[in-house]
């Protein structure tokens, strides 16, 4: 049985076709119990098929440009820097960057923090100085 699988899958005639094509080709000539499971296992363990397997996903779409802000603090980005050594009980930094001027606010945080903590720090350090950013960006 292994010789049949090898002949109908690995040979130039078989061309390392997939599970279904190999099964159909084998089934047109032979039959034995559990043949589908054996073909599935053989193709699954085929070294050549595993190294040259193609992806069956749709290609990604075109890149979309990011919006260009018209004024300072129109569009901002936020991120966290974590894994820092402790300093005055703080071990994280909330980074808020303006996309127009590249000006940034670096606000110290301590783990564990919650959404309420981050919102309070944002309001106390960024919102009170610059106001509400424009929120109609499509990224």
From TrEMBL:
Limits of the Integrase zinc-binding domain: 2-54
GO MF annotations, alphabetized: nucleic acid binding
Designated name of the protein: Integrase zinc-binding domain-containing protein
Organism whose genome encodes this protein: Hibiscus trionum
Taxonomic lineage of the native organism: Eukaryota, Viridiplantae, Streptophyta, Embryophyta, Tracheophyta
């Amino acid at each position: 049985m292994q010789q049949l699988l090898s002949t109908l899958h690995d040979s130039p005639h078989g061309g390392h076709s997939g599970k279904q094509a190999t099964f159909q080709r084998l089934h047109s000539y032979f039959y034995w119990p559990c043949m589908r499971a054996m073909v599935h296992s053989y193709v699954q363990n085929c070294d050549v098929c595993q190294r040259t397997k193609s992806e069956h996903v749709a290609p990604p779409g075109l890149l979309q440009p990011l919006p260009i802000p018209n004024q300072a603090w129109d569009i901002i980005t936020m991120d966290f820097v974590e894994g820092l050594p402790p300093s005055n009980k703080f071990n994280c930094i909330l980074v808020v960057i303006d996309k127009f001027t590249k000006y940034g606010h670096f606000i110290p945080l301590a783990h564990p923090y919650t959404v309420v903590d981050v919102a309070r720090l944002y309001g106390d350090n960024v919102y009170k100085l610059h106001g509400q950013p424009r929120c109609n960006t499509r990224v």
